[in-house]
Each structure stands twice: as C-alpha cells, then as structure tokens.
Design a protein that fits this description.
Elements lengths: L20 H8 L3 E5 L2 E4 L1 H20 L3 E2 L5 E3 H7 L2 H5 L7 E3 L5 E4 L4 H11 L8 E10 L14 E11 L2 H21 L4 E5 L9 E8 L5 E6 L5 E3 L25 E4 L6 H8 L7 E10 L5 E8 L6 H11 L7 E6 L2 H6 L30 E4 L1 H4 L4 E7 L2 E6 L30 E16 L1 H5 L3 E3 L5 E3 L1 E8 H11 L1 E2 L2 E2 L10 E5 L5 H16 L4 E4 L5 H11 L3 E5 L7 E6 L5 E5 H16 L6
Parallel strand pairs: 3-7, 15-17, 26-27, 26-28
Antiparallel strand pairs: 1-2, 4-6, 5-6, 7-8, 8-23, 9-10, 10-20, 11-12, 11-20, 13-19, 14-15, 14-16, 18-19, 20-23, 21-22, 24-25, 28-29, 29-30
Bound molecules: adenosine-5'-triphosphate (ATP) and magnesium ion (MG).
Magnesium ion binds next to β20.
C-alpha cells in the first residue's frame, strides 16, 4: 500500500479530549476518529490491526473446536425478560440501547449474547449426543456506558469476541473453562501482551466462577491485588484477604455478659472522632452503614450493613449478597447507593441520630417512608461478627455503647464477607504473604455460567439416563478493540507506537527520503516490490513530504521495520531501522531484504509460543 493513498492524517498536537497515552497516540497517528462520545471510526490502519488480532483469535478458537457464527444484534425484549435481565439492562443505569420498531415491539442492541445463544440452544440442542458444543463470533457490541472514556478502552460501540459453550455436566464445563484459559493466554501472548489472569466478580452476567485477563498498565481502571509468590491474583471487586486482627477492647468494658455501658460521645459522629476522644482503635468499633437498593420488580429496599470500624465496604460484594438474599420476586438489584440525610428526609422520615447508629436500629424508623420498603435488610460482615465485645452507636444523639456483644443484638443473620481487601492485607493462602496492588486493563473475561440462563430460557436436553436437564453453559469474551489500544498502552515510546509485529498494520515501511530523486524513487519502488514478493506486508511512503516529516510519521504510526532509501541509493545502499530498539544499520539492498525477511518471520511467532 502507498501512504499517499492511505487517507493518512497525522496530528502534531495532542488532542485535548484524550487523557490516556494510547488514546492520544491512536488519534495522533491517524488510526481512528471520534464520531460521538464513545463512538469511533476505525480507519484502514486500525482495521488492519483489528483484523490481525481477530485472525489470532480465530486460530485459537478453531483449535479448541469452537465454530464461528454471527448472531443478531437486534434482540427482542422478550428473551431478556425471560432471563430476568431486561430491567437491569434498560432501567436506571442500565447500559443496553433499546428501541421500539414500527409495530411498537421492544428491542435491545446487543451488549452481550447469552439470551440469544441460549434461545438457539433451546431449539437446537436436544440430546447429550450433541454435547459439548462451542460457538463464537467477532462482532460489534453496543453498551451505553455511564462514562465512556479513554477511546477504545471504554466505548459505546466496540468489537468483542464472544464465545459460548454448552455441556452435559459441570465437570465438562470446568474442563472447557480451563482449555479456554489456555487459549486466552496464548492469544494475548501472540498479540505481544503481558497479561495476568485474576479471579473476578461475575457481576450482571452471573454464574459461579470467572476469571479476568488484565493487561498490566498504570493507566488501568481496575485495581488488582496479588501475592508475591504468584499464587493469588484477584480483582479488588472480588479479592479476599485476612483482615488485621482486631485490638481487643480493654477491661472493664469487655466483661462479657455485663450490660453495655452508655458512653457520652458528644459530636463524635465519625470513627476518627470517637477513637481520638476515647483512645480507641477503629477495630474496636462496629460501624453501621445505611444504603438503599433499587430493585427491578419491587420498591427500593433499605439496607443496614454492620462492619468493623477499620474496614471498607465492598460494593460489588454487597450487590452480590443482596441478589442472593432478596426474594426472587423482587427481581434484580439495579444499583445500591448510600442513604444520606437528604435522601432520608425526601422519604418524609423523621429525625435520625446520624453518626450514632447501632446494628439494632429498629425498622420503626422507616415507618411512613414514601417509596421505600418499611424494613431493613440487615447484613453483618464477618469482621464485625467475630468481635466478642465492641463499641457501637446507641441510636441516640451523642451516645455510643461499649461492651456490646452480638447476643444482645440478635436478628443480623449469618455473617458474610462484605469487606474490601486492601494492599498490605495478609493473604488467605499464606498469612506471611501480603497483598500488593497493581493496575490493569481488562481485555478478556471467562465465565462458568452454570445453568442460570438455560434454566430461565428452558434450554434442556435429554441426558444419558433419559432425564430432561438444563444445559451447563460457559461464556468467554475478549474486547478486541480494547485489546488493540491496550497493546499501544504497553508498546510505545516518546516518538509514538511500537506495534508488536504480529498485530502491526504493516510489517515494514519503505521511506523515500526524497521522492523527487529518480534514483531513490526507483530503488524504493524495487525494494517495495521485492518485499511484497517475499511475503512481507509492506507500505511505501511515496509522499512528496520532507524526509523529516516522513520519519516522524513512520515513528508515530509504529510500523516495526523501516527501510530508508536516501542518498546511498546510487550505491544500492539503504538503511534498515527497527522501530522498537531504534537500532539502525546500513546495508546493500539485497542484504536488507534478506535480514528483514528473516526478522519478520521470527517476529510472526513470538518467543515462548508453543
Ligand atoms: P468492564 O468491567 O470493563 O466494564 P465487562 O466486565 O462489562 O467490562 P464483559 O461483559 O466481560 O465486560 O465483556 C467482555 C470484554 O469486552 C471485556 O473483557 C472487555 O475487554 C470488553 N469490553 C467490555 N466493555 C467494553 C467497552 N465499553 N468498550 C470496549 N471494550 C469493552
Ligand atoms: Mg468485567
């Protein structure tokens, strides 16, 4: 391809809207253009990158026996209503674009395809003899993200590879999950990415086990916690750890069995105030947090969480626990947010001793709420449950209680894990190890869905014993367009992009230093033709620009190898430059071709590839 025909427009200035290096570089190097918030045109150079990534994915999916398919993006509301996800995806902060057709029927634009694929499975898969099967597609997904940002990292229209597998039992599903894990690791390595597999929260997709693949990068949106021995890695949304031991409450306040003492705590409405005034440690206090969960099929549910004073509430864990605890008739949890004094009075509710609340705050305080349900869902975090004796609010202004035990505050139900693991916490598998923090960009996510969707959408098969059973399902996503940008985030320098060769838009670029010079022009044309004959994907920068401009552009767009045809052309000499290392050598044109062909072949299968 000739650069003069590429519609290439590179930018010298840094686009103001881009905060992330990779986003800036893709815009500056002319790979993409923004059409609307979170909506990008993938220009020809980027499309080549996306196709290269897709080719690697296809090879690895086919090697697993998965079949490529293409499913509808327009998805009827009914199947989402049957799976119970329609309101969660369309109400409130729901991310599904949806619309009505001319017959007033509701549709969603596919953010994901579990419903579609399960509907098909229900029709097509009847017997255990047809199992297991896996299909995949590479397609545009639509998500009306609350905060589209960072270019292709979080866009509203993006390319995803999604695969789905169906099995007769959970063992077979787990086996496929492991094979997918292997395929994912190969895909990312082949694309030149350094990726870490981490335990993940399954979120709105649901299911038992899930693992995310994170491109480690300072700019990543996700916080990852890992142990130094490499045996534990998890997204913070999901991570578990051992909380620091609580500092025992000193006698006499800790005398179990004794009635709690009322403490005067004037104006001490925060843990810090309380600790400062009474020489306490935050782990000696149980704090009470009030939140409200919006539900798809029921009135908002007030939630009371009791957690140790030195711990932080993990919203992902909270939302999962609520989904399990609330009655099925309430539908799904749309969102959970803290209750503040304004939200409280908006419900027409009376005075509250904010900052002095205890776990036994009576449900009566909710009496007469305008829209909320009149009772709290009470949740007790395990760190608080483990305290034999503690301090907590007395539900009275300026008063706390000391020497409280859970026997005196019944009705909290079984303890659950609601705390956020933090860097520096001790690891569960080895308390001598401490958790370390790093940041990551999620490029892939694999799930063992189990039977959630097949139960809901009646996707059943007859088993070997003749019994009708629900299919076991897995689903496996890769953000193809996000991956392309993540590769730039990991591979760039101060001059521009340094594409890993297997996903570079072209493998080599021939630059004519002076396109008006007949000798240079002729040699460059010959080099370009010979490279292509040798099976190298080559670009020819034939533009009538100054050499400096062309060199800068070549660095910016990041083609792995550059052949410069300049003054040495008369002696058949050219310069060969490797983009990543900036190593340059002067060679005869044939030597240059031979070396280039050799290096490109090596680079096409990155080291370590089995
Ligand atoms: P995230 O946690 O980043 O919002 P997700 O968990 O919602 O992502 P999945 O539903 O698992 O994502 O989608 C599979 C893959 O698609 C993700 O691993 C990610 O790489 C990619 N992806 C998800 N949302 C976006 C988006 N808005 N823009 C670009 N890629 C995305
Ligand atoms: Mg995710």
């Amino acid at each position: 391809m000739r650069v003069s025909r590429l519609m290439l427009v590179t930018l010298r200035d840094v686009p103001a809207e881009a905060e992330l290096t990779s986003h800036r570089l893709l815009l500056r190097a002319g790979y993409m253009r923004r059409l609307a918030s979170g909506v990008y045109a993938y220009l020809p150079l980027l499309w080549r990158v996306l196709n290269r990534i897709s080719a690697v994915i296809r090879e690895e999916m086919e090697a697993l026996g998965a079949l490529e398919t293409l499913l509808p993006q327009l998805q009827p509301a009914e199947i989402w209503q049957r799976s119970g996800r329609w309101s969660a995806y369309t109400d409130g902060e729901g991310i599904m674009f949806h619309l009505r057709d001319r017959q007033d029927r509701c549709f969603g634009l596919g953010p994901t395809h579990e419903e579609v694929v399960t509907t098909l499975a229900a029709e097509l898969l009847r017997s255990y003899r047809q199992l297991p099967v896996s299909i995949y597609q590479i397609q545009t997904k639509f998500r009306d993200e609350i905060r589209p940002r960072f270019g292709l990292m979080r866009s509203r229209e993006f390319i995803m590879k999604d695969a789905y597998s169906f099995h007769a039992d959970s063992t077979d599903l787990a086996e496929m999950y492991d094979r997918m894990d292997g395929a994912y690791r190969r895909i990312f390595r082949r694309c030149g990415l350094d990726v870490l597999g981490v335990e993940a929260d399954s979120g709105a997709i649901g299911g038992a086990a899930s693992r995310e693949f994170m491109v480690t990068a300072e700019a990543g949106e996700d916080l990852i916690l890992t142990s130094a021995d490499g045996r534990y890695a998890a997204n913070q949304e999901r991570a578990v750890s051992l909380a620091a031991a609580a500092v025992p409450l000193p006698a006499p306040a800790s005398g179990s069995g004794e009635a709690p003492e009322l403490m005067a705590t004037p104006g001490q409405s925060s843990i810090d105030d309380l600790c400062a005034a009474h020489g306490l440690h935050p782990s000696q206090i149980v704090k009470v947090l009030l939140l409200v969960a919006r539900l798809s099929d029921a009135a908002p549910q007030p939630v009371l969480v009791a957690i140790r004073g030195d711990q932080q509430l993990n919203m992902a864990k909270l939302s999962n626990v609520l989904s399990e605890r609330l009655p099925a008739a309430a539908g799904s949890v749309l969102d959970v947010s803290p209750i503040d004094a304004a939200g409280w009075s908006a419900q027409g509710l009376g005075a509250m001793a904010w900052g002095f609340l205890g776990p036994d705050l009576p449900d009566d305080v909710l009496g007469g709420a305008r829209t909320w349900q009149p009772r709290f869902e009470r949740l007790l975090d395990a760190t608080a449950a483990d305290l034999p004796s503690f301090i907590c609010g007395a539900n009275l202004e300026d008063r706390h209680r000391s020497g409280v035990s859970w026997e005196r505050l019944p009705g909290m139900g079984t303890a659950v894990d609601l705390r956020s693991a933090l860097p520096g916490d001790r690891c569960c598998h080895d308390p001598a190890m401490l958790l370390q923090a790093s940041r990551g960009i999620e490029v892939g996510h694999i799930f063992q869905l189990g039977r959630k969707y097949s139960d809901a959408l009646a996707a059943r098969f007859s088993s070997e014993t003749g019994a009708e059973e629900s299919l076991w399902m897995g689903c496996y996503g890769i953000g193809v367009s996000r991956l392309a940008q993540a590769a730039v985030e990991q591979h760039h320098d101060d001059q521009g992009i340094c594409w890993p060769l297997p996903i570079a838009p072209y493998e080599a670029i021939v630059v004519i230093a002076n396109a008006a010079d007949e000798t240079q022009l002729a040699l460059a044309e010959a080099m370009y033709a010979r490279l292509r004959e040798a099976g190298i994907d080559a670009l020819l920068d034939d533009r009538r620009e100054r050499a400096g401009v062309k060199f800068k552009d070549a660095d910016l767009i990041g083609i792995p190898w550059r052949v410069v045809v300049g003054r040495g052309a008369a002696q058949d000499r050219v310069e060969l430059v490797e983009r990543r290392t900036r190593e340059s050598r002067e060679l005869d044109s044939s030597e240059a071709i031979a070396l280039l062909v050799d290096r490109v072949r090596l680079g096409r299968c990155p080291a370590g590839d089995p």
